[in-house]
Specification:
597 residues, alpha+beta, eight-stranded mixed β-sheet, 18 helices
């Protein structure tokens, strides 16, 4: 029989370290959180080999006395939990296991000097064993150095990644913590090279843009929504400013960086009809909730949380993002990309092949050189005067001021796909299909919300659509909700649906194809999304059926009508797939193309 025995303290600490200290970035996270909770104004981080060789965190916080340093290295000793109400923790950490766990698998040197004290103290612990302690010279605050992590535990050391990978993880940790506290200053160095430096007292928008991407400042909107004791703030990138991976989505709950599946799903739902499926939004969201409404103890590293009312939180994130985007949604890409600008031809047009052939391929005849050259030149002139692929009509309206008509006045149409408009501050090019697709979607939404728009166009003769029985079941289950948007369906036998009316905005659409596409959408999204989010995606499919197609000739009046509707329609700056609906060449950009600047 095996007997039950009490494990030694060193082994207990190593077991805890397995939960808390997975890699150098995990140890760094605990140390920086301690510095922030100590009331620091400046936090300085130094790394060597991405944290594999050394991690040092210095702060100007409250500091610790010699007795407190000794106590801090004991398990379950903390200053972050004033009483036994563990669910009311308001600091970044409270477990009380970080320092002893790190000290059990590395060499840890703690130096600290309390504010107002003339003396500092140092304590050195190597893999759980006390090496030395004594006076230390340092300014008020605390400095913690971690060296040779997992050196004496080869089984853990061999699972660490390369110095480059560990550095990337450490940089992400400091970036997230610095983003959560724009009132504090942070500095991060790796192998003597400064990689991050932010000053205390910045605005939230400025701090996020500085840490994520400079161009985010001009391609984002502010988020601010309150519901009772819940408060959501942050910065949300425009749908046209997106990435192929979701690594630029920063989520915080009560100032704590988290990677919560509920919040990630809510973000995806908020951008569902504005981004292509393989693109991801760029944002930083900060959610403040009462301590009693969230449980932060569900993960050893405190990266996941559990909400008492998850439906409220999800709905708040979705509505907060959509409301914020609806205020800045008429903006598109802020400026043409450098590659797009470089694609403009600045060279003179080459002579036509016919002209070259007439000049250089004909036998030389001095007596005929003048007349032949003149004839060839007239042919070249005629080739230049051939009908262009673009089309323009006279426009009676003058160029309106930017306040009245931000998208300007239509001047023509290129390739029967792009509208060219003259605005007060530049040249606007509009993708007519993408723009109209967004307008139709917003009309459908307005109809479903009962905003006075006729929702349905009754079919003179109801159309029978044959589908698989399972697809018919899905349509029948969603029929009541679809009817609110003008698509009235009725079961017609086991494998057919009857289309009695379609949305008024899609009056010229194909009812059979529309019903089939809606059924496909219901099958694709399954039960993963809430009904409201499914309907948003379905409306995007319906809008595509009723939009002006590329290749359709529009009159100037139609073009101007489209521009005016875009100026007053929510989210008109991007199509339903996240691509821009219009771009602008400012006067300065045009002058650069012609070498005037």
């Amino acid at each position: 029989m095996r007997v039950i025995r009490r494990l030694p303290e060193t082994l207990i600490n190593r077991i805890a370290a397995g939960e808390v200290v997975e890699r150098p970035a995990s140890a760094l996270k605990e140390l920086v959180e301690n510095a922030v909770d100590a009331g620091a104004v400046h936090v300085h981080v130094r790394l060597s080999e991405g944290g594999l060789a050394m991690i040092e965190v210095s702060d100007d916080g409250c500091g610790m006395s010699p007795d407190e340093i000794e106590l801090a290295l004991e398990r379950h000793a903390t200053s972050k939990l004033p009483d036994e109400a563990i669910e009311q923790v308001e600091t970044l950490g409270f477990r009380g296991e970080a320092l002893p766990s790190i000290a059990s698998v590395a060499r840890v040197t703690i130096e600290s000097r309390p504010q107002g004290s003339a003396d500092g103290w140092k304590r050195v612990v190597d893999n759980g064993a006390l090496l030395s302690e004594g006076p230390a010279a340092l300014p008020p605050g605390t400095r913690v150095r971690v060296e040779h992590l997992f050196d004496k535990i080869p089984a853990r050391r061999k699972f660490l990644r390369s110095a480059r990978s560990e550095w990337a993880a450490s940089l992400d940790v400091v970036r997230r913590l610095a983003m959560a506290r724009p009132d504090l200053g942070f500095t991060l160095e790796n192998d003597g090279r400064r990689a991050l430096h932010v000053q205390p007292g910045e605005t939230l928008e400025a701090r996020v843009a500085q840490l994520v991407a400079r161009e985010l400042a001009g391609n984002s909107v502010a988020v601010d929504l309150e519901r009772g004791d819940y408060h959501l703030t942050g910065v949300a990138g425009l749908p046209t400013y997106n990435r192929g991976v979701a690594d630029h989505q920063y989520l915080f709950v009560n100032g704590r960086p988290v990677k919560d599946r509920l919040l990630i799903g809510a973000v995806r739902g908020a951008y569902a009809d504005m981004l292509a499926r393989d693109r991801h939004a760029v944002l930083a969201l900060f959610l403040q909730v009462p301590g009693s409404e969230v449980d932060v103890n569900v993960h050893p590293a405190k990266t996941e949380v559990r909400f008492r009312d998850p439906a409220l939180v999800r709905g708040m994130v979705v509505s907060g993002l959509r409301h914020a985007l609806s205020t800045g949604d008429r903006r598109s890409a802020q400026a043409p990309s450098a590659s797009a600008m470089a694609a403009w031809q600045a060279e003179p047009l080459a002579p036509s092949p016919e002209y070259q052939a007439s000049i250089f391929s004909q036998p030389w005849r001095p007596e005929a050189r003048v007349s032949d050259a003149g004839q060839a030149w007239r042919g070249y002139e005629q080739s230049l005067m051939a009908p262009p692929t673009a089309r323009a009509e006279p426009a009676a309206e003058p160029v309106a001021d930017g306040e009245r008509y931000p998208l300007g006045v239509a001047r023509g149409q290129v390739a029967n796909t792009y509208i060219v408009a003259e605005a007060a501050d530049g040249l606007v090019i509009v993708d007519q299909h993408a723009a109209h697709e967004r307008l139709v979607l917003e009309r459908l939404r307005a109809a479903g919300a009962g905003q006075g728009i006729t929702p349905a166009q009754a079919m003179l003769i109801p159309e029978v659509v044959e589908l698989e029985e399972v697809a018919c079941d899905r349509l029948e289950a969603a029929a009541e909700k679809l009817a609110e948007f003008g698509l009235v369906l009725e079961r017609f036998g086991p494998a057919a649906m009857l289309v009695r009316s379609i949305p008024a905005a899609l009056a010229k659409g194909d009812p059979a194809k529309l019903a089939a596409d809606v059924a496909d959408d219901l099958a694709h999204h399954g039960d993963a999304l809430l009904l409201g989010e499914k309907l948003d995606l379905i409306l995007a499919t319906m809008a595509c059926h009723g939009s002006v197609r590329a290749g359709r000739v529009l009159s100037v009046a139609e073009m101007n009508a489209l521009l005016r509707e875009m100026e007053v329609t929510p989210r008109s700056g991007q199509c339903n797939h996240g691509r821009p609906t219009w771009v602008k060449l400012a006067h300065g950009d045009i002058e650069k193309l012609f070498g005037r600047k």
